[in-house]
Amino acid sequence: MALDASTRPYKLNTEFSLADIQAPPLLRGVFGFKQLFGSDKLSRSFTTEGQSLNDFINQLNGTISTALSDNAITGVNLGALARRAKNLLTGNFEK
């Protein structure tokens, strides 16, 4: 985090990144997901400027990104799901 108070308006820049976050505890705690497993990467970058809290809020600009990797969903039979999709696409509605 960097705050430049040498000039007005004051400028604030902040960057933050986390890698190899284990997804299950995070997703269970925040969203209630129980079947998704994997690791997560979270990054954020914000800039703002102003002389008051209101200025800082109004001038806030930045990005937040996340990426899941090495994922698995428990309790889902992906093979059966793929076969059903194939049957539907080929017009075989009985299987």
From TrEMBL:
It comes from the Bacteria. InterPro entries: AsmA. Residues 3-93 form the AsmA domain. This is AsmA family protein. It comes from Thalassomonas haliotis.
